[in-house]
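Data availability (excerpt). The following record was deposited with the supplementary files.
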Amino acid sequence: MAAVRTQPPSPAGGFMTDMYYVGVDGSATCIDVPDGESVMEAAVENGVEGIEADCGGAAICGTCHVVVDAEWFEHLDPPDSVERDMLYSVKHRAPHSRLSCQIRMRGAYEGLVVHIPESQR
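Predicted structure:
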């Protein structure tokens, strides 16, 4: 039997999922993200430093690059071929790199941790 979500719905009517952005200095910011919103959109809306998102989520610039915490990486949906191709061009690429515009939040990602690289360019 699936667990029942008990947190209140978001203003848009969906559920909110907590996630953490870890900056270069090691400080973590927790944000309640509406299910269905991308990790990039939540970062931009909440002023998370280091996520530039120049293309607005089209997966064509790589300026929303994050490194997913190792314990979370295998739990996310895998990147598609467009994202994989773009990841080859990002600076500070790591084995668990992803484009935050391509990660859509949902309840199963409660507590997701992403690390922001030193720079996006």
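Summary of structural features: Confidence is low (pLDDT under 50) at residues 1-10.
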